[in-house]
Amino acid sequence: MKERVASLLEKVRNENPLIHNITNVVVTNFTANGLLALGASPVMAYAHEEVADMARIAGALVLNMGTLNAVEVEAMLLAGKAANERGVPVIFDPVGAGATPYRTEIARAIAGTVKLSAIRGNAAEIANVIGEAWAIKGVDSTGEGSVVELAQKAAKRLQTVVVVTGKEDVVADEQGVFIIANGHPLLTKVTGTGCLLTSVIGAFAAVETDVAFAAAAALACYGVAAELAYEQAGDNPGSFQIALLDALAIVSRVHVEERALIEGMNSHV
Ligand SMILES: Nc1ncnc2c1ncn2[C@@H]1O[C@H](COP(=O)(O)OP(=O)(O)O)[C@@H](O)[C@H]1O
Ligand SMILES: Cc1ncsc1CCOP(=O)(O)O
Ligand SMILES: [Mg+2]
């Protein structure tokens, strides 16, 4: 499994997929730099006049509702429709779903309208999209519960690959589950690390049709990069943010094969 993960990382770098992001104002620059460091090609495009054209030529479309407004939501729906028509994978990050009724309503509307290849959020966001109670404070998950059960339930309900992140990350679809235990707690002290991760999943999904495996591989590579970044930066959030970009550029087959903590269950063995 680790060899397959490492090969997919190399495939991302070799193919340099174009990733169309409609994302939030907090993380835009960090997301573009993270994708570039990894070896993908980011573009941010929001105008209603061009989003469909951009989505059609992308390797993946990433929809992130972190600082949503009505104009941007319409852009996401237009881009999502075009991506669906062309078979371009769409990855959705329902940032802050559950924090306000508007966010919850829009997250459910996007998940119900656009055919998603995957949805990625923290436990509270995913729970709130499917109408389960789970505490959220702004964009951060504060509740507790079984993340594997939540991911499986959401995969069934939403009929897509579900990625729930936290201390351990879970990927679920109707075929089974992956659990990935890489990463570092400092990721929670830098804003945008979840959003960048969603775009990194987009980069992996652009070059691999098995979206559950693509997501699991992205999580493992990202988590290993975070571990390398911590070794470089120590407990300094500012330095860690920069070190994470550097680590995304250098994380290699050898790092992945030595460090990836990825486990597959059911048919994902
Ligand atoms: N306690 C933790 N220990 C290690 N890694 C973590 C921890 N919490 C979150 N992460 C990692 O941080 C990244 C962002 O996840 P998360 O914080 O759940 O998303 P978001 O920022 O959208 O709330 C993921 O790579 C996840 O694995
Ligand atoms: C702080 C904040 N507020 C709206 S979007 C955003 C960024 C959230 O980023 P992440 O979910 O990756 O922590
Ligand atoms: Mg988030």
Structural key phrases:
9-stranded mixed beta sheet; binds 4-methyl-5-hydroxyethylthiazole phosphate; 51% helix; two-stranded antiparallel sheet; 11 helices; UDP-N-acetylmuramoyl-L-alanine:D-glutamate ligase; 17% strand; 269 residues; single chain; alpha/beta; binds magnesium ion; binds adenosine-5'-diphosphate
Biggest beta sheet summary:
9 strands, mixed
Query: Within the largest sheet, what's the order of strands?
Result: 2-1-3-4-5-8-9-10-11
CATH topology group: UDP-N-acetylmuramoyl-L-alanine:D-glutamate ligase
Radius of gyration: 17 Å
- Domain module tally: 1
Order of helices and strands: HEHEHEHEHEHEEHEEEHHHHE
Report low-confidence residues grouped into runs of 5 or more.
none
Estimate what percentage of residues fall within beta strands: 15-25%
- Helix count equals 11
Shape: globular
Q: What is the CATH architecture annotation?
A: 3-Layer(aba) Sandwich
Distance between the termini: 8 Å
Bound molecules: adenosine-5'-diphosphate, 4-methyl-5-hydroxyethylthiazole phosphate, magnesium ion
CATH superfamily: Ribokinase
Q: Which structural class should the secondary elements be placed in?
A: alpha/beta
Give the averaged pLDDT, no decimals.
Answer: 97
Find the count of extended strands (DSSP E, 2+ residues): 11
- The proportion of residues forming helix, as a percent range, comes to 40-55%
CATH class assignment = Alpha Beta
